[in-house]
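Notebook, bench 3.
Goal today: get a predicted structure for Sporulation integral membrane protein YlbJ from Fontibacillus phaseoli so we can plan the truncation constructs. The sequence was checked against the plasmid map this morning, with no discrepancies at the termini. Length recorded as 411 residues. Pasting the sequence as submitted so the record is complete.
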Amino acid sequence: MQSERRAGGSLPSTLLFGLSAVLLVVCIFYAPGEAFQASGQGLAIWWRIVFPALLPFLVLSEILLASGFAQGIGVLLEPLTRKVLGLPGSFGWVFPLGITAGFPASATAAANLYKQGKISSLEAEKMASVAHFSSPMLLVIVIGTGYMGLQELGFLLLAVHWISGLAAGMTLHLLTSGIRSRHKLETQQRNPLPARSLSRLRLAANQMEEARAADGRGFGKLLGDAVGSSVQTLMTVGGYMLIFAVVIHVLISALPGFIPSFSIAGLLEVHLGTYAVAQLSMPPAIVSALLGAVLGWSGFCAFLQVRSILKPAGIGSRFFVVNRLIHGAYAYVITLLLWRPLSRWLPEALPVSANSDITVTAIDATTRGFTFLPLPDWKQIANQFQFQMVLLLLLIAGLFVLTRFRKKGSR
């Protein structure tokens, strides 16, 4: 009976996606030149922003997971992450990866941990949703410097993005307390409690050794597999971005003029959505709050990217949507609350009026047309990549220090 319901429930979605695909093809044939420009814009965003920001971190994640690093840090951080977020200690590796590399690196790391049998499916689902952040390159270089003309505003949006994401994770932890208790036995079976006679550092070293021995690949084989898997993931991400760039252009061109274009772009794709919001003629506090909300939601395109990673591994994505909504709402409110005091302390760092200096428009509210986004140059990309790598190292070192401090305080 359950299989019949599933089969019956899949028919409407199949028809819907089939009809949408036909309509999209018709629109492309109707205006092939504009569709080509839109897909080229998606390709430019992927090549100039997503690819260099993600590839090194994805490769590094694969190598460190195979070497047992994530398992070792998981043993050290287990008491802290369980208490605050209801997640296993291996979140201490997925979280720094998420806030430095951005999505879908965190989803890839969570799926790999689940495939290795280190966490349950529910833990992997929550871990991917809580550690889902946009990369600092998007917020600081692209939005702050390129869209708004103020790098300081990009750092403010980055701080709010991180704070609201952690707050959303804590809220999700409270909302899923009943479900968490039902999965407690599964977690204990996957990760039995270690003997208390051993120190936590020794247990971490043992876990790393066991994980490395279980993997068994040499460095050459490991590096090749990591690069191949990472490039395949990025190609999937690029395909989604190209398709959604065309979809956004088609929808904005076809829908009535009273529907604001930024709402369509922000709902579907974070890069085009944030640029459309940045062009609004509204008070800067409202524009920044809307930017935070779009970044917290991150777009339906990001949801499909994460789902393409989690679903093949047998991991659900229902909590991902809930956490995205909470993240976006918190970011909007926190930005508005912080705007007035920060504008007094840092009057030169925040815009006085809505941004109107940028003449290159991706989604124009008047013509509802399409041109090219201002993208960062390679020097900016290199500088931001260096910042992300240093940030990742500092976060990992800080987590180790926090663990040792907490251990000494509990004695």
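The chain has 18 helices and no strands. The chain has one domain: 30-409.
Flagging this for group meeting.
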